[in-house]
Design brief:
75 residues, little secondary structure, 2 strands, binds zinc ion
């Protein structure tokens, strides 16, 4: 039997085609694996940022220095 359409969630990392991507940049339509998960343009405006999982991961892992849209967390 022929295969049906591939599931939309099955994407490959932009840097590692052999890896299944776990993250997806809505602005640039680029998928990343866990290792590559970071915002490609953190200094630029992104209308998807408030709902971007990549951005949240970057914030938590200190990969992003500036946090223009989110208030600083209270200690
Ligand atoms: Zn990767």
């Amino acid at each position: 039997m022929a295969e049906a359409a591939r599931p939309k969630m099955s994407r490959r990392c932009a840097n590692h085609p052999q890896r299944e991507a776990a993250w997806f940049c809505l602005k640039h339509s680029v998928a990343y694996c866990d290792e590559c998960c970071r915002c490609p343009h953190p200094e630029g405006y992104c209308k998807y940022r408030s709902q971007c999982a990549i951005w949240q991961v970057c914030l938590e892992s200190d990969r992003v220095d500036e946090v223009p849209l989110l208030p600083a967390k209270a200690p």
